[in-house]
Amino acid sequence: xxxxxxxxxxxxxxxxxxxxxxxxxxxxxxxxxxxxxxxxxxxxxxxxxxxxxxxxxxxxxxxxxxxxxxxxxxxxxxxxxxxxxxxxxxxxxxxxxxxxxxxxxxxxxxxxxxxxxxxxxxxxxxxxxxxxxxxxxxxxxxxxxxxxxxxxxxxxxxxxxxxxxxxxxxxxxxxxxxxxxxxxxxxxxxxxxxxxxxxxxxxxxxxxxxxxxxxxxxxxxxxxxxxxxxxxxxxxxxxxxxxxxxxxxxxxxxxxx
Amino acid sequence: xxxxxxxxxxxxxxxxxxxxxxxxxxxxxxxxxxxxxxxxxxxxxxxxxxxxxxxxxxxxxxxxxxxxxxxxxxxxxxxxxxxxxxxxxxxxxxxxxxxxxxxxxxxxxxxxxxxxxxxxxxxxxxxxxxxxxxxxxxxxxxxxxxxxxxxxxxxxxxxxxxxxxxxxxxxxxxxxxxxxxxxxxxxxxxxxxxxxxxxxxxxxxxxxxxxxxxxxxxxxxxxxxxxxxxxxxxxxxxxxxxxxxxxxxxxxxxxxxxxxxxxxxxxxxxxxxxxxxxxxxxxxxxxxxxxxxxxxxxxxxxxxxxxxxxxxxxxxxxxxxxxxxxxxxxxxxxxxxxxxxxxxxxxxxxxxxxxxxxxxxxxxxxxxxxxxxxxxxxxxxxxxxxxxxxxxxxxxxxxxxxxxxxxxxxxxxxxxxxxxxxxxxxxxxxxxxxxxxxxxxxxxxx
Lengths: 257, 446
Known about the structure:
The structure holds two protein chains of two kinds.
Chain A: E1 2-11, E2 17-26, E3 31-35, H1 42-50, E4 55-64, E5 67-68, H2 74-80, E6 82-85, E7 92-96, H3 97-111, H4 119-130, H5 138-141, E8 143-144, H6 150-164, E9 168-172, H7 180-193, E10 199-204, E11 217-222, E12 225-230, H8 233-241, H9 244-250, E13 251-252, E14 255-256
Parallel strand pairs in A: 3-10, 3-11, 6-9, 9-10
Antiparallel strand pairs in A: 1-2, 1-4, 4-5, 7-8, 11-12, 13-14
Chain B: H1 26-41, H2 58-61, E1 66-67, E2 91-95, E3 98-99, E4 114-117, H3 125-130, H4 143-151, E5 156-160, E6 170-176, E7 183-185, E8 188-193, E9 198-207, E10 213-223, E11 228-236, E12 242-251, E13 256-263, E14 268-271, E15 274-277, E16 282-292, E17 297-306, E18 311-321, E19 326-335, E20 342-352, E21 358-367, E22 372-381, E23 383-384, H5 385-393, H6 398-414, H7 420-434, E24 443-444
Parallel strand pairs in B: 1-7, 2-6, 5-8, 6-9, 7-10, 8-10, 9-11, 10-12, 11-13, 12-14, 12-15, 13-16, 14-17, 15-17, 16-18, 17-19, 18-20, 19-21, 20-22, 23-24
Antiparallel strand pairs in B: 2-3, 4-5
Helix pairs in contact in B: 1-4, 5-6, 6-7
């Protein structure tokens, strides 16, 4: 589904490379976890894959279902079925969740030659999807993320994902800042959405989330590269030993080898 | 070497007309005389005048305006698309400033209430008592208010007696038609609401074609004890027009006056709203929403005068600027020495969509008492890049994302409209404004 080949990227207009040759293959039906210390490039990878204009790809390519999406705008990637759950969901006062989701859902449907939903049909659909994250109807009427608690914002990202039903979702630290109840609801929601036809990439600092969602693969990112990939047991290993061991192993003079 | 004393320019340099005693109604003729004297004396403002520092008046001073000639003969065509369904029988229509009885209808107005034209109520005691009593623009040597005084022969007259509520909104529809020559018109409104009366006014200025004219309006609103007025002002003048507006409201004890000025049209719009508190416990609003593009100039110079205890005032002035348009905001708030317990809110928020747009903003608070809550703020910004990307990443085109964000910015102002059809009309106008083909250039981070 997704193939990332030798991906290099920097902040637009700056020289310093943040991604220094990332290789990653994700097949449908899989759940991947990308772990790593702060500043290792995890969030940058998620943003670059989603088409954030702040970053420039200097080398390598991103193939989604065989198509090179490197030059596509963020909306075009969304139309193909790619989704980014933001680490810090943006507050957009004045636009309700319902307005955004309807606009978004129907645009994606239109782009894929599917039928758009009228307001009544869409409402029924939204209400059904609300159950995924255990939210009340009132949630739809609120301005996007405006005045939401940290947990509500993260739930809203999962809710948007439930409604838009992407093929591939990058979830950027969706677990951070969640209390135990919210973490259960959010991971429960992600588990409900995960299926044989889609793929999910969880970007996280901590093993905690992986107690609730079992990944097929765990990758460790350091210094702009994926330095180690293995099964779910790797997460536990990291929890035990921390990243220091790996850092020693994979870096010479602060540079990943 | 001799130095010639340069004669100061007056507005008479830019227009033709015979002024003074032109009305046969004494209350109006008196003002005509006063105005005629003033316009020949008051100097035409320049950028050296503090109140006109940023305002380019060349669209007036490089033009020449003639009086309106017999607007009754103008071929109007059907203008019913400008009627409000809620005000089918509570409507006054003025064509180029002149009353048109054929297009007006006041069948829904209660018998004890007056909604009509001044010329038809020349002997009315209320008109005689109140007309011209509230415009204090003379002390500022205001040439435009003086021109209105000098030139008006008629106008809208609304009188709501004690404890009377007018259910239907009163629509004062000013239409401006095509003309070979640029003309000037001087619409005038007097509203008097007696104790505990209630009314909703929709004052609209709309051009049927995109031609040049000078629209100089004066509104006087007098609210007695406990009177409530909702006043929506919709300015959809021609994009070649000049509109100078002087609305003033005087509020007695417990009065509530809420006005919302929506600026969409005019090459030059200058609005100087004033609210004067005559007694304790008043509550008022002078909100504004400005949507301009091209080479439009929209200038609001407001003055709020708290003179007594316990006033609550609200001024949210929202502005969206595109292309080379220019917005100016100068919001004066006075709190006099003897007025305590004042709760005054003022905020001017500007959204710049283009690189070449200009915004000048100046909150001006003059507070002479100590137990006062005055919050004020002014912001100028581009659309937030993070917000645009968030919507963009959800599949919306950048253009659509920006449209939605501009729409969201204006919504707060539009939602204050009480009359449903006005609400709808403004939503349509916002969509028209935002859904232009070009993309907005300027985007910035908060």
